Task: inverse folding
RNA sequence: UGGGGGAUCGUCUAACGGUAGGACCGCGGACUCUGACUCCGCUAGUCUAGGUUCGAAUCCUAGUCCCCCAGCCA
């Protein structure tokens, strides 16, 4: 007897579930869907849902639909429909022909609502929203049936058709499922299925005066699309019985199954659409694509490669327990990818002038610089050198502590790809600030090595003062000052006042030709991405690790 | 005091009755024309108390703590 091969451990319960359903023959191939409501921009939390749903389709030879859950016209906009498609593509996924809208199913859903009414499973309630709420009961006490709960099928049908016809104003009536006002699961206490909304819908225009809500649209949409696995986040667990109740009561063409997973949380980050919308509206950030935002648009503008986002989602894992992933793990993914991919350049963020006293005035030369030590195929380039340079202010100390081995009076260091220089004098202004360094160089060390074999402890970045280009560099720090913003209430109070610092940097001239959206490394500093704003503007994607700074 | 979930190194996550493993962070060291990268090493965990078993993170019992639900939002 041959034992079936033990399936390799997959690492997460969702993959195991799919494998089991495929192995048992329950499904031939998985059909999943990513179902955003177009009421805002996608953020990295959505990236998890996207990677899970599209990832399963890719890995198990199924398909994944992009479906807009556009059942609430008062919140939804075409701008978001467009940005969501753009962001999903940017992340690296493709829904092919499978682009759907819940609004595509409004007619079918309406028919199914009448089906429920005709079978005595739904009724029109004339109570106000306040009355419905008051009569729903509490977590520990049952609800009270609506006085309209026992209306006749004929009256319900008549009223529902007149609701559709637009005869009644907003809020005057709703269609409710007739289930169980005493259920411990509050979602089963006669949930509202349709509400009257005289509102313009981005896709159906002014055709409808009533709109189904999430519960009456989602599972049915899944069924209509023959979705096999409807994967959603934990807060919908309590909706599952209702999801299944509709599948039981309606003539649906398929039987999708809902499974929940924990949503993504990250330290120092807010992933609530409500709050993100507020930050944009109240101008705490510059827009949905502000590089400080956790939106995909923001990450893209910051220079984060989509592959790094996917890798992060994968590393964070999938489980059913609530968790908060350290933002350091995200940074690590970004650095790992960019270290392999990004071209290196020299740029000085906070310039300190250096004059090489023994380098002839008016002379300059070009030195060979490696573009990416991790990728020989990236080749090399020429960097101009001259008598006057800029180095980083942090790279000089007049009275250095023991472990400081950068420039200080009398100390010799290497300028990357160039020469060894020795500091002879620090020139100060009236206030005692060092404003210029007088140095000498050793011509024999051209290229960065001394023929006599002597070593220096530091290699520093620099730019030629005569050739450098000025650029606006935007340095981003965490948007929040604490790892758990909002834990004490309003996350606005936890906003970091220093989340954006704008400086004027001096960069090697080649950077003037950087492409918008291209992320490069400024050596010894970090990764920076050319912004689309006019002029030469760079956003800091993420800094390099800095063991020296950490030790301080 | 209702219903539904969940608890494994500091963090995230594996292990499906048989050596508690990986990643991130942290700390050492090697290397280095980036104090980066890379490499090597170290630190550190099964919520508690019982029980079943040759053997329990895993099964049973009883607790504890955490999360979600009372929109005509999704």
Result:
């Amino acid at each position: 007897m041959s034992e079936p091969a033990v399936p390799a451990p997959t690492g997460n319960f969702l993959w195991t579930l799919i494998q089991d359903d495929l192995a048992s023959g329950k499904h031939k191939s998985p059909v999943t869907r990513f179902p955003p409501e177009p009421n805002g921009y996608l953020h990295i939390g959505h990236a998890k849902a996207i990677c899970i749903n599209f990832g399963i389709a890719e890995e198990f030879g199924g398909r994944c639909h992009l479906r807009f859950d556009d059942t609430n016209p008062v919140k939804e906009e075409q701008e978001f429909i467009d940005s969501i498609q753009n962001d999903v593509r940017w992340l690296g996924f493709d829904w092919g022909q499978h682009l759907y809208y819940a609004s595509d199913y409004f007619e079918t859903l309406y028919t199914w609502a009448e089906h429920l009414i005709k079978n005595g499973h739904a009724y029109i309630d004339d109570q106000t929203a306040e009355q419905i709420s008051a009569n729903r009961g509490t977590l520990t006490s049952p609800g009270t049936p609506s006085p309209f709960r026992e209306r006749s099928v004929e009256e319900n049908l008549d009223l529902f058709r007149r609701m559709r016809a637009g005869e009644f104003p907003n809020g005057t009536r709703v269609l409710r499922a007739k289930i169980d006002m005493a259920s411990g699961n509050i979602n089963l206490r006669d949930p509202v299925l349709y509400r009257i909304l005289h509102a313009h819908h981005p896709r159906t225009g002014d055709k409808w005066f009533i709109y189904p809500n999430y519960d009456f649209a989602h599972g049915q949409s899944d069924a209509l699309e023959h979705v096999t696995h409807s994967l959603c986040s934990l807060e919908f667990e309590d909706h599952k019985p209702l999801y299944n109740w509709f599948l039981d009561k309606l003539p649906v063409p398929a039987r999708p199954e809902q499974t929940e997973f924990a949503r993504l949380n990250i330290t120092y980050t807010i992933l609530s659409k409500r709050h993100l919308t507020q930050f944009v509206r109240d101008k705490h950030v510059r827009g949905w694509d502000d590089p400080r935002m956790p939106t995909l648009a923001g990450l893209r503008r910051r220079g984060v490669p989509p592959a790094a986002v996917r890798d992060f989602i994968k590393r964070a894992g999938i489980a059913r327990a609530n968790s908060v992933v350290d933002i350091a793990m995200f940074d690590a993914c970004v650095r790992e990818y960019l270290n392999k991919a990004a071209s290196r350049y020299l740029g000085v963020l906070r310039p300190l002038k250096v004059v090489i006293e023994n380098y002839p005035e008016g002379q300059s030369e070009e030195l060979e610089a490696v573009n990416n030590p991790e990728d020989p195929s990236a080749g090399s380039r020429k960097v101009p050198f001259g008598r006057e340079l800029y180095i980083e202010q942090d790279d000089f100390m007049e009275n250095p502590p023991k472990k400081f081995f950068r420039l200080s009076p009398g100390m010799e260091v290497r300028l990357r790809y160039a020469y060894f220089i020795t500091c002879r004098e620090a020139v100060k202004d009236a206030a005692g600030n060092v404003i210029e360094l007088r140095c000498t160089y050793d011509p024999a060390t051209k290229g960065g090595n001394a023929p006599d074999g002597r070593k220096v402890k530091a290699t520093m970045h620099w730019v030629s003062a005569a050739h450098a280009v000025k650029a606006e560099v935007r340095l981003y720090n965490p948007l929040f000052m604490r790892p758990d913003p909002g834990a004490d209430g309003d996350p606005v109070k936890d906003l970091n006042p220093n989340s954006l610092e704008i400086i004027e940097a001096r960069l090697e001239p080649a950077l003037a030709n950087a492409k918008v959206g291209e992320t490069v490394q400024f050596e010894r500093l970090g990764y920076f991405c050319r912004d689309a704003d006019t002029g030469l503007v760079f956003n800091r994607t993420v800094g390099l690790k800095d063991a020296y700074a950490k030790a301080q």
Remarks:
- The CA atoms of residues 12 and 317 of chain A lie 7 Å apart.
